[in-house]
Design brief:
The protein has 115 residues and is mostly helical. The protein has four helices and no strands. The chain is globular.
C-alpha cells in the first residue's frame, strides 16, 4: 500500500516532476520518431515508472502518473482526437505545467502552518 503520510504539496510536486519528464520524453522522442510513436513511448515510460513505484510511495506514483498523463494526451493528439497540438508544443506545455506544479507545491509547503 502507498505511504499515506505524504502530504498534498509533496504529491503535487511529484506529479509536476512526472509532467516535466513526460514533456521531455515526448519532445525528444517526437524529434526522432513519428508523433504517435513518441506519444506511445511516453505512455509506456509513464506506465513503467508508475508500476515500479506504486508500492514505494505516493510521490513515485505521482511521477509515473504525470508522465502517463502527458503521453496519453499526446496519444489523443497524435490520433487526431485532440485540438491539434504539435508534439513539441505539447511537450513545452507539459514542461511548463510541471514547473508550475513543482513551484506551487514547494510554496504551499513552505508557507503551511506548522512547517
Amino acid at each position: 500500500m502507498a505511504d499515506e503520510s505524504l502530504n498534498g504539496p509533496t504529491r503535487l510536486g511529484g506529479a509536476g516532476i512526472g509532467s516535466i519528464g513526460g514533456g521531455v520524453a515526448l519532445g525528444v522522442l517526437s524529434v526522432v520518431s513519428p508523433y504517435v510513436v513518441a506519444a506511445a513511448g511516453t505512455v509506456v515510460v509513464g506506465f513503467v515508472v508508475w508500476a515500479l513505484n506504486r508500492r514505494d510511495g505516493v510521490a513515485g506514483t505521482g511521477v509515473g502518473l504525470g508522465c502517463l498523463a502527458v503521453g496519453s494526451i499526446g496519444l489523443l493528439e497524435a490520433l487526431g482526437l485532440g485540438i491539434g497540438l504539435a508534439p513539441l508544443f505539447l511537450a513545452a506545455i507539459a514542461v511548463g505545467a510541471g514547473l508550475i506544479d513543482v513551484l506551487v507545491g514547494g510554496t504551499i509547503e513552505r508557507f503551511r502552518p506548522g512547517s
